[in-house]
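Fold it.
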Amino acid sequence: MKMQSCKVRVLVLMLSAVFLAVSVSCMARESEQLNNPYSEDEGKQAVLYESFSERPKHFDPAVSYNANEYAFIAQIYEPPFQYHYLKRPYQLVPLTAARMPEVIHLNQKGEKLGYGANDDDIAFTDYMIEIQPGIRYQPHPALAKNAQGDYEYHRLNPAQIESAASLNDFKATGSRELTAEDYVYQIKRLAHPKIQSPIAEIMRNYIVGFDDFSKQVGDKPKAALRNLPMVGTTALSRYQYRIRIKGKYPQFIFWLAMPFFSPMPWEADVFYDQAGLADKNITLDWFPLGTGPYLMAENNPNRRMVLLKNPLFHLETYPTEGEAEDKQKGLLVDAGKKLPFIDKVVFMLEKETIPYWTKFLQGYYDASGIASDSFDQAIQFTGSGDVALTPIMLEKGIQLQTSVAISSFYMGFNMLDATVGGETEQGRKLRQAIAIAVDYEEYISIFTNGRGVAAQGVLPPGIYGFDEKAGINPYVYEWLDGKTQRKKIADARQLMTEAGYANGIDPKTKAALILYFDTTAASIDDRPRMNWYRKQFEKLGIKLVIRGTDYNRFQEKMRTGNAQIFVWGWNADYPDPENFFFLLYGANSKVQHGGENAANYHNREFDRLFEQMRNMDNSEQRYRIIQQMQEIVRHDAPWVFGYHPKNFSLFHHWYKNLKPNLMANNQLKYTRIDTADRDTKRQQWNEPVFWPLVLGGAVFVLMLIPAVIAYRRRIKETRL
């Protein structure tokens, strides 16, 4: 029996020793973050960790027109101008340009007009742009040359194409200097029908010869564009080019800060257009080629996207001036330092919000938005209604950045519809009644966690002409105790009576008025929102019928005028009131002209004022015209002015140089990460907890002892 007890003890000690060895091994790695989703070498670099949830489709700057794509290509491509990172209101400054453009007005004969010339005499405007010498493209196979000076990969044979699985399989790379001709070539690309640029229809109205050039090159390959002239754009020298537009259009310079007008080397089209490469996703839409601070190192939309610092990036420094309070906020600490600060940017695919949020709290993402299911954990409202971080966020040193987006979401009426449209008093009062009843303050509270500002007109905050104090919509709101207050539902019902729909009854059918809401919101998740809309109309006795459909069918309804009521939105392309008022300009009617006026609104006086205002420089006269236009639209109510979204973003305290810039997309180059601070916090927040393992092991050993004793007893009995 003593022998058995001794053996048991030996066995227990052996098991304990093994367990302790494992424990010691684990504890020896305690300094490591066992849940770190990144490779060890990345932790030693200046790496920024971001995420994406939707696969980017286009990295060709002539085609891309999507915010999730701009998050990448704005770091790779460089138009001639950019928005100053710190100054407000938004101000354009040179990027690759040597200076701001010389703007020359010409008459019909092409003769230069003097300063202050009458707008009616301006037939053309020339933008003379000079770029900086010495800027080079990132290393790329399309620019690689052999010893004889010929392009290495411009004439690939079938075997070379067959053996290539990725752009990285072309080992040789090259570079060359950026020239004015590259900007001219890109404008020609915008006109090529095969490229299908989303701004081609807009540019044909402005750039001289754009439409004729588009027709001329319709059946020609992209590479042929290089040697074909376009009247409206030409290179005057190696570093200077000219763009000629029709008439006077001051907003055109804002387009020159968008990726559409970034340079493109002709070599890129020659390389990528070789037969067979597109089948392997070796295209410009997958592997861009630019002069910006970063290059695309890895494109795996099913896992991650990686940007690396461009080793040939030209000299650009952090701004040395900004707004008065920027220095106090620490936004000028890096003034004059060379950009960019980040060596590598890793974008991880995150389709689910919960794991994404968890990784952010662990320090494995440097920034985060706030999903609805995490909002209460991150944000609290003070007694005065202000927004603040919760204690757990403050304890982690997390920073909150809020900003009202330069965008609008609105409910539109099809003004061609016999019931809700038209210029009659009946239709106008019906629309005004609905505008009062659809309580967007409630919508913001329920569906956006308070992240929005109810709209009072066409313009969002931050756009010239927006007036927060005098800008109340008097047909929907009234002043009460010094605050705007939505009018009572009784006021809306009175308007319904005046429109001939007392108690919501349609006099033609003697039953509740039926209106139709066309939407792409057709999933189960959209039902609460759709039910909310129904209840808003029920306040007036109106029966709202939801007609959900897919996006293509919805677009067709909008184009043909078969939608009655709809919801849409608009993000500013540039910070000018023209970019919002044109959404209601009669000549932009979607049904009649294929434009962006989805409501098909037409008011002669509004159109006249728009035509007068759109090409004016900002002035007191322009401001007064804008207020007149706001009043006309508020009165006619072709839209229920919905809301302007409010962006809530969270950043860890090691994320430096934070300032909202709603017009700039190339903000990554200004970002700096305190990697030492990040490493320290990651260690603290992700320290392995071993005591449950030790306790569990001890319990396991104790439970094992009776089993071993019973086993030994049975063996002994069997032998006997």
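Residues 617 and 719 are 106 Å apart (CA to CA).
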